[in-house]
Design a protein that fits this description.
The chain is 38% helix and 20% strand. With 398 residues, it is α/β, with parallel strands linked by helices.
């Protein structure tokens, strides 16, 4: 799931309804759908996604990016659960003004939506999904890669590189040889833990214990005891910050003063809020640190100027780029159709997204034959002085 970009802008986001960010006047008005957790434990990230998409739509309208076309958003709350996500996908497909969807946050939610979008030729671009099977098929781990849905894309890189990147960091940079492995049994968490384990053992490290938790668990006393007696030098957690924060805190409270490391689902400012003893913990995130990218300076300034109360968080830049990819695809379709939007542009937009290439907030934005981002950069962060600090940026070398 990039820095937990906790830059908070002043102002208030207010209550946003379907259609926010649209413009008035002649021509066509089309909708970019958003599916994200806007309430619940992961809402901090979801709201950052929603705000960033809205910002892209506002910019497209202000600059008349696609002559004759105005954009608006339709944001739906999936509460980070597959059931609501599936219902949202059906609702978005049923709205004929929707030309593309940004989201979801969770790989498990994406699984429930992909077929619905594919059947309707409606493109979806996730700024956050890292589960490999979503784009390369269930047999990817054996080397048999097959793209299940041509309508599915993502601007975040996958766990096929994120987990191993973390494993190499712990083994080579942090010099840890014994790791206790924990995951939350969700598509994202379990997949991340599996790819970490494979690379860590390949590096000569030992997995001294493995446990599975539920995403809603907050009492980890039994697991803390097992970690304490295992001789582990670090804990790797496949899951998200609502459970990772309490897990790390309870380990530290029990005197298990070893780092806990996770992926982008953990790398949020809220992890630190949940765990005042998180100093020294690690997390990986896709891409480079947005605040350090020259390409992101305008996005950061525009986000602040827009007056959003909530930070853009982990996936703000990727959400903006996902939206802009849809906007550029619409622009390409309109240009190819003598300056007019076709009556049913969805299939053409899918084809156009496959061909987009532009310099975005997060760097070069383009997609490979699986719909995966061509940007394979990752960053390791560590908690230092109450915030996520860049430890290392690079690419995984298998």
């Amino acid at each position: 799931m990039i820095a937990a970009l906790s830059l908070s802008a002043c102002g208030s986001r207010g209550d946003k309804k379907s259609g926010d960010g649209g413009g008035s006047g002649g021509g066509s008005t089309v909708t970019i759908g958003i599916d994200a957790p806007l309430t619940g434990d992961l809402s901090a990230i979801g709201i950052g996604i929603r705000n960033s998409v809205e910002l892209a739509v506002k910019k497209a309208n202000e600059t008349n990016e696609v002559p004759g076309v105005k954009f608006q958003i339709k944001a739906l709350d999936d509460t980070a659960k597959p059931g609501p996500g599936q219902q949202n996908a059906t609702q978005l497909v049923g709205d004929k003004s929707v030309v593309g969807v940004v989201g979801p946050l969770n790989s498990s939610v994406a699984q429930s939506m992909q077929q619905i979008f594919a059947d309707a030729n409606l493109v979806e671009i996730s700024p956050a999904n890292t589960g490999v099977a979503l784009s390369q098929g269930e047999k990817w781990v054996t080397g048999e890669k097959k793209r299940p849905f041509k309508t599915y894309f993502r601007t975040a890189t996958t766990d096929a590189v994120q987990g191993p990147f973390a494993a190499q960091f712990l083994a080579k940079d942090a010099k840890k040889s014994k790791v206790f492995l924990i995951d939350d049994q969700k598509t994202y968490g379990a997949g991340l833990a599996a790819t970490f384990k494979a690379e860590f053992t390949k590096q000569g490290g030992s997995i001294v214990g493995e446990e599975h938790v539920n995403p809603d668990d907050r009492d980890f006393a039994a697991i803390v005891t097992k970690v304490k007696t295992s001789g582990a030098e670090a804990v790797y957690y496949g899951g998200e910050y609502p459970a990772a924060g309490p897990l790390s805190l309870q380990l530290k409270d029990a005197g298990v003063n070893i780092p806990l490391m996770g992926g982008d689902g953990m790398q949020s400012a809220d992890f630190i809020k949940l765990n005042p003893k998180s100093a020294g913990d690690f997390a990986t995130a896709v891409g480079g640190p947005v605040e350090q990218l020259p390409t992101a300076a305008k996005f950061i300034a525009d986000y602040k100027a827009a007056g959003y109360k909530d930070p853009y968080e982990t996936y703000g830049g990727y959400s903006y780029d996902s939206s802009w990819a849809i906007i550029q695809a619409v622009k390409s379709v309109v240009t190819a159709n003598n300056g007019k939007l076709p009556a049913d542009p969805r299939a053409a937009v899918v084809d156009a997204v496959q061909k987009v290439s532009f310099d975005g907030v997060t760097g070069k934005v383009s997609f490979d034959e699986f719909g995966d981002t061509t940007n394979k950069q990752l960053t390791v962060y560590t908690v230092k002085d109450g915030k996520w600090d860049v430890e290392k940026t690079g690419t995984f070398s298998g």
